[in-house]
């Protein structure tokens, strides 16, 4: 009885592995290390190196480790770059998910928690996003995540697969000092690197219709996110019926200026961010409601913004 975590050596996946282990759900990691880091896999947790595109490998891993459920975190996660690499994005996120579902069906595994994304909404007309907000993805990445949700839905109809998809915006922080965000595209590592290089981070526009003039977005702590993945797995194990999708959102969000202020406080590096022109298409505010996840998946914001930044900074320094 164990749960396979695809992408379990990555930033989010490695936190999910620890959350599952804390719940006694016996994680098994599968990762091709294209962006994951082998040292993120805890000692004693089985590690299968390979891709979700390899169905025979998936079936062997499921069989050899007694897998009864899957948390599917693996995927190509760079929304901006996906515009330049659409075929690669679809191969990894759509074909890969289909192959995984085929392997699960072949081995009789009937439960899955899918790491989806708020990118399925695109740029919504409303400032607060609910699960019912219309889906209008604006990148191959967002489209691939929405198709992934459809694949789960259709497989549920066809085979009785029990599933849920967790959508979230910006994942930050660190739950362990040895786990850090190594993405070359995410805000926190980019700002940290700029500060370490003696450069001044940028704010794109300070004349938005928000309290301090900078964009407001949803930021959630990666350890809080992982708790809800484990809660979803536990409830599927119990035979409970879950919603098809949940937003893991803060409900109020933080501004870019607030993030920069917290960066200066956490790092001890005083700076005044450079104000650059607005980027086309950036809305004033996008924040997700997390009421349903709070009801069903033990979702809550357990960390302040300063705690998010401080934990990420300490992990980044430890990795240097």
Automatic annotation (TrEMBL):
NAD-dependent epimerase/dehydratase domain boundaries: 3-249
Pathway the protein contributes to: Carbohydrate metabolism; galactose metabolism
UniProt catalytic activity: UDP-alpha-D-glucose = UDP-alpha-D-galactose
Required cofactor names: NAD(+)
Family: Belongs to the NAD(P)-dependent epimerase/dehydratase family.
Descriptive protein name: UDP-glucose 4-epimerase
EC assignment: 5.1.3.2
UniProt entry keywords in alphabetical sequence: Carbohydrate metabolism, Isomerase, NAD
Underlying gene: galE
Organism listed in the record: Frondihabitans peucedani
Pfam families found in the cross-reference section: Epimerase
Enzyme class name: isomerase
């Amino acid at each position: 009885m164990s749960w396979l975590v695809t992408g379990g050596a990555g930033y989010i996946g490695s936190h999910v592995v620890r959350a599952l282990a804390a719940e006694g759900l016996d994680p098994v990691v599968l990762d091709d290390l294209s962006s994951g880091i082998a040292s993120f896999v805890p000692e004693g947790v089985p590690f299968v190196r390979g891709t979700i595109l390899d169905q025979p490998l998936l079936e062997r891993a499921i069989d050899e480790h007694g897998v009864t459920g899957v948390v599917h975190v693996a995927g190509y996660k760079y929304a901006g770059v996906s515009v330049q690499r659409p075929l690669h994005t679809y191969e990894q996120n759509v074909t890969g998910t289909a192959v995984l579902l085929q392997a699960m069906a072949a081995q009789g595994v009937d439960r899955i928690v899918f790491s989806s994304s708020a990118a399925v909404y695109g740029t919504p007309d409303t400032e607060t996003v609910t699960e019912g907000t219309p889906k209008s993805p604006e990148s191959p990445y967002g489209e691939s995540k929405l198709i992934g949700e459809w694949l789960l839905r259709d497989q549920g109809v066809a085979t009785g697969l029990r599933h849920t998809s967790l959508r979230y915006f910006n994942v930050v922080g660190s739950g362990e000092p040895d786990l850090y965000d190594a993405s070359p595209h995410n805000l926190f590592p980019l700002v940290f690197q700029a500060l370490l290089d003696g450069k001044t981070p940028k704010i794109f526009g300070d004349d938005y219709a928000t309290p301090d003039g900078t964009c407001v977005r949803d930021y959630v702590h990666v350890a809080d996110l992982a708790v809800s993945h484990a809660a979803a797995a536990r409830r599927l194990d119990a035979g409970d019926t879950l919603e098809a999708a949940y937003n893991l959102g803060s409900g109020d969000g933080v501004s870019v200026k607030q993030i920069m202020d917290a960066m200066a406080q956490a790092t001890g590096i005083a700076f005044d961010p450079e104000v650059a022109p607005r980027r086309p298409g950036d809305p004033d505010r996008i924040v997700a409601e997390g009421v349903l996840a709070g009801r069903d998946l033990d979702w809550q914001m357990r960390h302040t913004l300063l705690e998010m930044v401080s934990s990420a900074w300490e992990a980044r320094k430890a990795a240097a």
